[in-house]
Amino acid sequence: MKTIKILFLLVLISSLSNVSFGQSWSSGSGKLYVNPVTTKVGIGNTAPNSALHVNGKAGVIPFRAQVNGSTRLLVNTNGGVTIGTNSSAPSRGLYVYGYCGIGTSYPSRKLSVSFNGSIPIRLKDSRTTGNRGPHIEFVDGSYNSAYIAAIFHYGTKDGPDHFRNKAIEIRPPAEGRVNFYNGNGVETSNVTMTITHSGYVGIGTHAPSSKLTVDGKILCEEIQVTASVFPDYVFEDDYNLKTLSEVEEYILLHKHLPEVPSEKEVIDNGLNLGEMDAVLLKKIEELTLYIIEQNKTIESLKSEVNELKK
């Protein structure tokens, strides 16, 4: 019995001599290295530079973590990482099965981001100087001041100067607008177009006062204006047509036609195309009635003249 114990101890010592801490151990084509001084473990290499350093061979999955036999973390041979499932990730990419939280341990969507910073999310290229190209920013702030901006940036600063070439900005619900910029987006004077939460659209202005407000010229092929009333009532028998003497008296007093806005009113308040078209048509119809009446008078006079010539 003593001989058996001695042989067992010799075998055990011989085995431990091959797996000594601080030394490499080889078993077939694989290697395991444990260093108690640096507390680093190397799998597939003898010089680990992290707490666990795995160097897999080509075609062999380097790392897999499972829960009850189901893969929950996988590093694929293509360099991609899969979380939550066994599916392959894109080459050198990331595939997440389930909800992903950044800054939060309770994500409620496929991607939930919680932050305490001025610009928590910035999608941009890798350039840091000169023309850095377009990027998108989610800018933190209070409920009334946070916004999303698409920016084309020149320069190197990440401070307020990077708004010099803001292109599009989505403001929060309290202000509720989408702004399109040209040049320095910080200044409202550089807003080329805005859409408010009330459904108002401003072109060339930051403060539209109607469904469409344009500060500048409009070029189009056709405009259709709807109307609920049109002045065909002028031709009704009970229409009260002013006499030409009454019209003359009004013109001498007010310096414009009845029911037509004055020059000052148009300059101060602008012109309603639909209403103005209706007013002008009404004046044309009234003028037609005056001409018809004058024509009757002329025909009557001609008849009297012809009678006198007989």
Structure, described:
This protein is rod-shaped. Helices cover 23% and strands 26% of the residues. Strands 11-12-13-14-15-16-17-18 form an eight-stranded mixed β-sheet, with no helix packed on it. The longest helix has 37 residues, at 273-309. With 310 residues, the protein is of the alpha+beta class. Mean pLDDT is 78; it is low at 7-22 and 159-164. Among the domains are: 121-214; 231-309, no CATH class. The chain contains four helices and 18 strands. Strand 11 (121-123) and strand 12 form a beta hairpin.
- The global form is rod-shaped
Q: Roughly how many Å is the radius of gyration?
A: 42 Å
What letter string, H or E per element, gives the SSE order? HEEEEEEEEEEEEEEEEEEHHH
In percent, how much strand structure appears in the residues? 25-35%
The level of helicity is 10-25%
End-to-end C-alpha gap: 169 Å
Number of strands: 18
pLDDT < 50 stretches:
7-22, 159-164
Query: Overall mean pLDDT score?
Result: 78
Q: Compute the number of helices.
A: 4
Q: How can the largest sheet be summarized?
A: 8 strands, mixed
Structural class of the helices, strands and pairings?
alpha+beta
Kindly report the spatial arrangement of strands forming the biggest sheet: 11-12-13-14-15-16-17-18
